[in-house]
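ok trying this again, last paste got cut off
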Amino acid sequence: MVKITTCFSILIFLCLPAVDAGTLEEVRERGILRCGIVESSPGFSSIDDSGQRFGFDIDHCKTISAAVFGEIRIEYIPVTPHTAFTLLQSGGIDIFPDGATWSFVRDVALGLDYTGVYLYAGQGFLVRKDAGVSSVKDLDGATICIAQGTTLEQNIADYFDNHGMTYTPVTFADIDKGLQAYHADRCDAFTNERLSTAGRIINWPGRDEHVILDEVISKEPFGALVRQDDPRWRDIALWSFNVRFAAEELGISQENVDDVRKNSQNTETQRLLGVHGGFGEKLGLSNDWAYHIIKLVGNYADMWERNFTPLGLERGLNASWKEGGLHSALPFR
């Protein structure tokens, strides 16, 4: 009986098709993470005077690199809203972390998977103070500059149609070209995600002559994207991003993580930081993967304070649930 069972098992093994290496193995063999980013977006993705990249989206790339390598090994691949999904589908990049709104069509029709919501944003409008516009409803009949290839176009069309309003869209290949056209007085208003707009105009000459309306016409839950054919890589991204929420809830920051790891008696903290539990092994990573994320990138509050607080942006919906926001960590247990 033992011999028959053994032979049967061998036959099954021999008949199984070869399994392609997953993204984790490819990234490790390559020795570097290929991360797609949209450039020149203050707060999200910028380059300092020494040529170093920084920003909220850059920190997402660093998060995955820290989890996989325990250090920063990243090739940043510039993308646009028109090329990002194609590059990800074709394997040109390993992850696209830059503010892609989680929508039905993107989730089910592109062969891509979202890895959780890391930013709650919304579409708003930039107008001139002297235009006398205090509400979106004052833009009935206005000419509005907008970027192509995003959910922004559908959002504004739905909003104006639902409110019996009209507008004339002036479309551009990217956000910056649309902003330049608005600044050149080619349209009455500019529409975009509000956080992105705030970062882009903070250093404008005459910034005080413009105002971002308080009203938001859409929900824009942002999440990073990976290919749909690799559930383990999706899990790595999802749980790596979740580390930052969990760390904030547990009071672990980039500054104190070494001390907490050494001295904390909290069982969930110990599991998170790899003291015990073997959680990293379950993902194919080292058990101190989450420690490296916090040490190299920080928790969610660290990221916000580093990237958005200098722009005068408050967390609002992006605060922890303990502070009245929407972010809540999935439990490490």
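PB: full thing came through this time. The first helix runs from residue 2 to 15.
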